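Worked example

This section walks through a single chain of length 164. The input is the sequence exactly as stored; nothing has been trimmed or padded.
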Amino acid sequence: MWGMNFGDGGPTSPYMALYNASHHAIKAVSPSLSIGGPATAELEDVNTFIQSAAAWGVPVDGPDFVSTHSYPTDACNAMPDARTRLDCFTDGIIAARQQAAGHTFLLTEFNCGWRNTAIHDGESHAYAASFMFRTVNKLAPHNMSGETRTYPCACNPASTQATT
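Given that input, the structure is written out below as tokens.
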């Protein structure tokens, strides 16, 4: 359901209507397949998705996983203390993880920045390495063991090409 707006998840939500129909159809074919979502940007709508899935009739244990993604260039970059508030990025991820308590939590994208010059404006690859070590170590105690897809940090602010 890539490209669909999650919306409010309410009774008229096209996303949740498609998710609900897909969930039930796929589970009818094979209950062992994992179905989840919503793969929102900026850690948005994690709790709303869980509540909406229940309201739409997804079984009591809810979706098999909850997914979202974040970049430190999202909410953290807008703050005046972007360079000094080192835990902004990980604190947001931990808060989203707590909203999904009881569910597998997948952080499906993150890196040290996305086309950002305010946080890493020309730092060396040492910045990217230190960012990754700090992030992984900070998140490890918070049951962040789900599958995580990361993109290498693009330390050249002029680069717009993601690498996998």
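What to look for: Strands lie at 36-40, 65-69, 104-109.
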